[in-house]
Amino acid sequence: MSVWLIVGIAALTYGSRALALVFMREPREGPRKLLDRMPAPLFAGLAATSLFQDGTLVDERTLVATAGALVLTPTRSLLAVLLGGFAGYVLALLVL
Which of 48, 35, 33, 42 is nearest to 74 (CA)? Predict the structure, then answer.
């Protein structure tokens, strides 16, 4: 994977979000409530899928990293969830 590919993907991701903020109007109350509740379960689902590899439970370090990510899902911030998973993994490396 080249640096330019990563830059291109980042430009598409953040450019599309910026355009949506500029050109799309605010959603109505009902859909907005649904959208506000969605990210935390999605983050939790992504973290939970990391618990199994080839049908078996993963090692202890990955379990602790997943727990660290799940603890921070209520923040609804991808960065916070990723940092929680990283902190859990580092903690597991130090303790286990």
Answer: 42
Contacts of 26 (CB under 8 A, 6+ apart): 32
Q: What is the pTM of this model?
A: 0.52
* Average pLDDT of the residues in 2-19: 84
User: Backbone dihedral region of 76: left (phi > 0), alpha (psi from -120 to 50 degrees) or beta?
Assistant: left
**Tens of pLDDT along 68-79?**
888 887 887 778
Q: What is the DSSP string of 20-52?
A: HHHHSPPPPHHHHHHHHHSHHHHHHHHHHHTTE
Distance between CA atoms of residues 25 and 28, nearest Å: 9
Provide the pLDDT for residue 93.
93
Helices and strands (DSSP H and E) totals, the chain: 5, 2
